[in-house]
Specification:
The protein contains 17 helices and 10 strands. The chain has 551 residues and is an alpha/beta fold. It has 2 domains: 269 residues, ABC transporter transmembrane region fold (Up-down Bundle), CATH 1.20.1560; 212 residues, 3-Layer(aba) Sandwich (Rossmann fold). The chain has a 6-stranded mixed β-sheet. The chain has a 4-stranded antiparallel β-sheet with strand order 2-1-4-5, with helices on one face. A hairpin with a 2-residue loop joins β4 and β5. α5 crosses α10 and α14 packs across α16. The longest helix is centred in the middle third of the chain and has 53 residues. The radius of gyration is 34 Å and the shape is elongated. The model has no long low-confidence stretch (mean pLDDT 81).
């Protein structure tokens, strides 16, 4: 458990002071919690010796009341500091994770990792944030309390202190053995959480296809099996955890019986006074409570450790290596092409896609990429935007290797019109404004007009300020495509990549989109991924991507 707490402390960064201060208040709370026991022994002594007076009674009551108030106050301060530190820490970690994901290669998001990201953000971080931060503070308080109890029992009699220490160590040993077993179970449980998230996301994303083919019942089998598997794992987890907890409870009961028996024996041979023996018998039932409470949290700590492992897996992933040793010039030097691929090779893991590819695109020209599906056309566009990094060779814009420039500088020079459009659940105005956040309202409306968006925007209840559904769900495919083109027009980048923007729209929308594309592409360098011959009629150069080469 101490190892897990150290991991949290190391993770806390600038919030370490808050957490350590919470430990101090936990110690003070422990003193106030067990201080009344000491006073109670003294009160028993006074009553036994018939020396209790109203003045002494009033003083004792006042001290005990102050301790109770202190217990509440220090508990509040400890929880406040610990919880606040937890929420602040994980708020920062979520932002840090977002920054990390921004710089991950696109392959990470297409490799079954969406469920992992979702689970880490919602389940793992949420579990530690809401369940474990206060537990850490309580852990420190309980350890301090047990030390105080052992010291108090030693004060009453050394043998009582030794027995209390011995049984505390026995309970701790049982707890540690239990935790080692539970850790493996917790890892499996959290892995199932990730698997379940992936099944749910896949089921929701494919709902349209599932319903259209009337396969709701058959396709729901996988997700039902995932829920069933999760249920079985949770039940099995509890079954494996419960025996060790019951053994710990049994050890606690044995410790209490041994303590009372030893106390009676010491009293019978005159080793301990009557009032002390009476005090031990009364308070022995709570002697092992703190150490027991520590190890009753083993399940939480095991799951927390597993959650921390999964978080670190994502934070330790390699990101795209961004350098800041060059910038892309506004104009290419004389004789240097706008875009150049030079001896580029690339593979998706072990599957080679491009091998020693070289080609050029001159400024203000249109280059079309044709070839069979899966031949590597979209891969070329992805390498130009650094959605992926080349394995060897260079991709250059105006003579500068794109690996040597910051991503921000690279993306300032490139606009992409994807075949599959994604719009955010926000106003049309804000979706277009993403192209250039500092643009004026007049500029945004003008771009919407150039992209032939105003004919349907004017029919919406709030015009350009109408909020659309997530992914553009409340718009047709053609309307969503035109908004994405308006966004690119506003961005006004010198290089435009077109991934067959009209491939999946109806004839009426195709005409509008083509007009919008003409506005977007005026005076630009174009790289067009072509699926239909009419797309490349005006191309200055056509490259065929096939058999891992470009010719």
């Amino acid at each position: 458990m101490i190892k897990q707490i150290r991991r949290i402390i190391n993770l806390a960064g600038k919030y370490k002071t808050r957490i350590r201060l919470a430990y101090l208040f936990s110690l003070l709370r422990a003193l106030c919690s067990y201080g009344p026991y000491t006073l109670a022994v003294y009160i028993i002594k006074l009553l036994y010796e018939n020396k209790m007076t109203m003045e002494k009674l009033g003083t004792m009551i006042a001290i005990i009341a102050a301790m109770f108030v202190g217990q509440v106050l220090f508990s509040y301060m400890s929880d406040r500091l610990q919880s606040t530190a937890g929420y602040l820490l994980f708020s920062d970690l979520r932002i840090k994770l977002g920054e990390k994901l921004r710089h991950m290669p696109m392959g990470f998001f297409t490799d079954g990792n969406i469920g992992k990201i979702s689970t880490v953000l919602a389940v793992d971080m949420g579990f530690i944030e809401t369940n474990c931060m206060n537990t850490i503070s309580s852990f420190v308080g309980d350890i301090c309390s047990e030390i105080l109890i052992i010291s108090f029992m030693t004060f009453l009699h050394p043998l009582l202190g030794a027995l209390t220490l011995f049984m505390s160590l026995v309970i701790a040993l049982i707890g540690n053995i239990s935790m080692r077993h539970e850790q493996a179970e917790a890892d499996g449980k959290q892995a199932l959480n990730e698997e379940l998230s992936s099944h749910v996301l896949e089921y929701i994303e494919g709902m349209g296809v599932i319903k259209s083919y009337n396969m709701v019942d058959s396709e729901s089998t996988d997700i039902e099996n995932a829920f069933e598997k999760m249920k079985d794992e949770c039940i099995a987890f509890e079954k494996k955890v419960t025996p060790s907890l019951r053994i710990m409870e049994f050890a606690n009961a044995v410790g209490i019986l041994l303590l009372i028996s030893l106390c009676i024996r010491l009293f019978s041979i005159g080793e301990i006074e009557r009032f002390r023996a009476l005090a031990v018998c009364i308070f022995s039932f709570g002697v092992f409570r703190p150490i027991k409470e520590v190890y009753l949290q083993v399940t939480r700590f095991a799951v927390m450790n597993s959650s921390l492992n999964r978080m670190e897996e994502i934070f330790d992933l390699d990101v795209l290596d961004e350098k800041d040793i060059a910038t892309i010039p506004e104009r290419a030097p004389v004789g240097v092409p706008e875009i150049e691929f030079k001896d580029v090779s690339f593979a998706y893991e072990k599957e080679s896609v491009l091998r020693n590819v070289s080609f050029k695109v001159e400024k203000n020209t249109m280059a079309a990429l044709i070839g069979p599906s899966g031949g590597g056309k979209s891969t070329v566009a992805s390498l130009l935007t650094r959605f992926w990094d080349v394995n060897s060779g260079k991709v250059m814009i105006r003579g500068v290797d794109i690996k040597d420039v910051p991503m921000e500088n690279l993306m300032d020079n490139i606009s992409v019109v994807f075949q599959k459009v994604y719009l955010f659940k926000d106003s049309i105005y804000n979706n277009i404004r993403m192209g250039r956040p500092d643009a004026t309202r007049e500029e945004i409306i003008e771009c919407a007009r150039k992209a032939r968006c105003m004919d349907f925007i004017d029919k919406l209840p709030y015009g350009i300020d109408t909020v659309i559904g997530e992914g553009g769900a409340s718009l047709s495919g053609g309307e969503a495509q035109r908004i994405s083109i308006a966004r690119c027009i506003l961005k006004d980048s010198p290089i435009v990549i077109l991934d067959e923007a009209t491939a999946s729209v109806d004839a009426d929308n195709e005409a509008y989109i083509q007009e919008a594309i003409d506005e977007l592409c005026s005076g630009k360098t174009l790289l067009v991924i072509a699926h239909r011959l009419n797309t490349i009629e005006n191309a200055d150069v056509v490259y065929k991507v096939e058999n891992k080469t470009v010719a």
